[in-house]
Write a structure and sequence with these properties.
- By secondary structure, the chain is α/β, with parallel strands linked by helices.
- It folds into 2 domains: 147 residues, 3-Layer(aba) Sandwich (Rossmann fold); 185 residues, NAD(P)-binding Rossmann-like Domain (Rossmann fold, 3-Layer(aba) Sandwich).
- It is 36% helix and 14% strand.
- The chain contains 12 helices and 13 strands.
- The chain starts with a strand and ends with a helix.
């Protein structure tokens, strides 16, 4: 279904870009709060959550901006000749945007990592507790008629050390929510420093490799991080570890992790993401890997729901609405200043 508002208050023009119309294309399902905010400002939009990826280019013709989740990879092929002023991703990652190409075009990019940080943090801790207390394993056994207390003896988090790789919105939220568990929390971020506080001790990777019992990844998917979690990487940990990945599936080599599970180097594995999350079109190799993971009782897998709660759904739209309106307001102000300067020449 497509909805479109009728008016706009912001009359924008941008140097070195084709003339824009005044509507925003919303090509994925988002919380109605975003549309309500646009309606309040009389900003026209086309809301087409059921459109196909191939249809987005036509919708973008002369559009002011694009709001998208994960429906398509936004690059030169998708845009064609369209030159929206901004692209807003209703989520935390930016890996389905060709950032280099879009930045070269001068398109402003925005996302909402603040919106789902608490959801991701709670999912991380939930999956960790699941592995620690054998919750999924025990549940399935009881449902099948097996009552095995000793075989489901778990371990406590208190006194253990967790290394958090990537200390942005999600990583920092995990550290804060772990504060009541009596754990030593070490944080590492290649691009941040000076973040030690009552919840975390800023560390280097050598210290995390030497001390961690558990490691949790909260990093973006980039060329640098693709395939980062492989056999060589995990073997750098001095202890046998529990590993959690709530980032992106392609930061790990899953077949390597299977071998590490067999060796006992990995004591447990929690995955909210997979290398290929479309289970209907797995390759033969991917299907073998998935079935291997699925057979193990020290592996917990969820369908990329770490950042996907009722609350985060609303928060993401609120944050995107704030950022879009702030961007448009600044553009309007800049254009007004330019016209005033030109008028005095």
């Amino acid at each position: 279904m497509v909805f479109q508002a009728e008016h706009i208050h912001l009359n924008l023009k941008v140097t070195n870009m084709p003339a824009q119309s005044q509507h925003i294309v919303i090509a994925d399902q988002v919380h109605p709060h975003l549309m309500e905010r646009l309606d309040k400002e009389d900003i026209p939009y086309v809301y087409s959550p059921d459109c196909k990826a191939s249809e987005i280019r036509q919708l973008l013709k002369n559009a002011l901006g694009l709001v998208i989740r994960s429906k398509a990879y936004v690059n030169k092929d998708l845009l064609g000749n369209a030159r929206p002023l901004f692209i807003a991703r209703a989520g935390s990652g930016m890996d389905n945007l060709d950032e280099e190409y879009l930045n070269d075009l001068g398109i402003h990019l925005m996302n909402a990592p603040e919106g789902n940080k608490d959801a991701v943090a709670e999912q991380t801790i939930g999956m960790l507790l699941d592995l620690a207390a054998n919750i999924t394993k025990g549940n399935l056994e009881v449902r099948s008629g097996k009552w095995d207390r000793e075989g489901n003896r778990g371990f406590e988090l208190g006194g253990r050390t967790i290394g958090i790789i990537g200390y942005g919105n999600c990583g920092s939220a995990v550290a804060k929510k772990l504060s009541g568990f009596g754990m030593q929390v070490l944080g590492y971020d290649k691009y941040k420093s000076g973040f030690s506080n009552e919840y975390v001790t800023e560390s280097n990777m050598d210290e995390i490799f030497n001390r961690s019992d558990i490691v949790s990844f909260h990093i973006p998917l980039t060329e640098e991080t693709t395939g980062l979690i492989n056999a060589d990487y995990v073997r750098k940990f001095r202890k046998d570890i529990v590993l959690l990945n709530l980032s992106r599936g392609k930061i790990m080599k899953t077949d390597d992790l299977l071998n590490l599970l067999d060796e006992g180097k990995l004591k447990g594995l929690a995955l909210d993401v997979l290398e290929n999350e479309n289970l209907k079109i797995l390759s033969e190799r991917e299907n073998v890997i998935f079935e291997n993971l699925n057979r193990r009782n020290n592996v917990v897998i969820t369908p990329h729901i770490g950042g996907w709660t009722q609350e985060s759904y609303l928060k993401i739209s609120k944050i995107l609405a704030d950022k879009i309106l702030e961007f448009l307001t600044k553009k309007k102000k800049n254009e007004k200043e330019i016209h005033e300067i030109v008028g005095k020449v």
